[in-house]
Amino acid sequence: AIVCASVSKHLAGTVLLCCTCGVPIPPNPANMCVACLRTQVDISEGIPKQVTVHFCKQCERYLQPPGTWVQCALESRELMALCLKKIKSSMTKVRLIDASFLWTEPHSKRIKMKLTIQKEVMNGAILQQVFVVEFVIQSQMCDDCHRVEAKDFWKAVVQVRQKTVHKKTFYYLEQLILKHKLHQNALNIKEIHEGIDFYYGSKQHAQKMVDFLQCTAPCRSKTSQRLISHDIHSNTYNYKSTFSVEIVPVCKDSVVCLSPRLAQSLGNMGQVCVCIRVTSTIHLIDPNTLQSEYACYPKYCQYQLLNKIPVSAPIGFLGSHTLAEVWVQKTSEMDSNQQYYCRTFLGHLLNIGDLVLGFDFANSNINDEYLNKMNPHHVPDVVLIKKSYDRSRRIKRRNWKLQELAREGDGMDTDDERQYQDFLEDLEEDEALRKNVNIFRDASKIPVESDTDDDGAPRVSLTEMLEELSLTDATGGEGADMMTD
Fold first, then answer.
1. What range(s) does the 60S ribosomal export protein NMD3 OB-fold domain occupy (predicted)?
2. Does residue 159 share a domain with residue 130?
3. How far apart are alpha carbons 225 and 242 in whole angstroms?
4. Concatenated DSSP letters for 84-118?
5. Both 147 and 158 in a single domain?
6. Where in the sequence is the domain holding 11, given as residue range(s)?
7. pLDDT for 434-469, tens place per residue?
């Protein structure tokens, strides 16, 4: 060992000749130059230079054997991991040093990857080699897309219903679903009368949606299932599950008539209340006392405020509303002397001459079990709901927008457009409601700022708006839509 060490020390500063071509080289265990060593040994032998990768054009996902389909953007880490797994079994005897993508034309259906590997050869010499592996994209339809094409694709459906003539609740749920990305697992979304249906490929995804709805809105659900097929050899059953979710028919600005027992259980509040917010529970306010605690959807009437007298709030009341006694007159009866007296919780917003929306109880025939049993002296003539602003000005000044779900159904008619504008105005007026919604700045719309047009209508501040992003990368973005013909 001492002799070998002394010989190695003696040869450290010398130059040897390659045993094959005679070129002067630094000493190495093989006594060969790199060029000759590569002609003798190919460390990439056994590693395939061309590999097939399966891609579904319908859902834009790649097959990760044996049966998993994953979505990967071009030149992403996920795609690199998938490609390396395809050749992992052939690289057990070499060491992977580096891997990187080489640019290819997006429609070529080719993915090229440059690999750098090392291996010990000939008396302990370490040889490093760089080579290119080409991955060929082949189209193959995944099982989920097969079921879609066969019209038998869904395993569970969530039927969301609300027996009302308005759609405010569904517009709000749409924004919550988009914010929490619960629509990604849905195979199809279909809008129908009185509700919307969500179709899923697994019962677990449908149950997740039902749990979300129960945490978001007051509702009740029922579950049923139907046997589709039964394999007697493996004792497996194929069911289709249906989840029926019924949302309570109350929304913001609805007037609710409580039963005497329920009103008593809520702290002896009045039976006629106004719904100021709907979350997982219903928030009600008594317009006569400002008492806030726990239902008809008549049409709004527009009134003009003639006089207002502030009223001190009850002892112990803390809130953002102000109690007031007001005298109003219908805008459709301005040529008459008919006036209405009522109490309202909008004293902090209303001034003499303002327009306000409300429900007319004095001239309405309301068929309600509990309202008909009430003392007529306790039923108000008018219940004021919200201050009225010029809608055309609000639309003109609105410089933000919301995202929408891609769903089947008829286009939005005139009544749907009116209800959607009502929902947008509710977002502008209720800051607490906006906290659960992603609001995006509308770059295509330039707001018109004018002091003469400012009627005091609430607006969404610029700090609450998000920039609408397009999730694309430098090579073309989300998955391999560029790979299609």
1. 319-387
2. no
3. 6
4. HHHTGGGGTTSEEEEEEEE---GGG-EEEEEEEEE
5. no
6. 1-40
7. 888 888 888 777 655 554 556 678 888 888 887 765
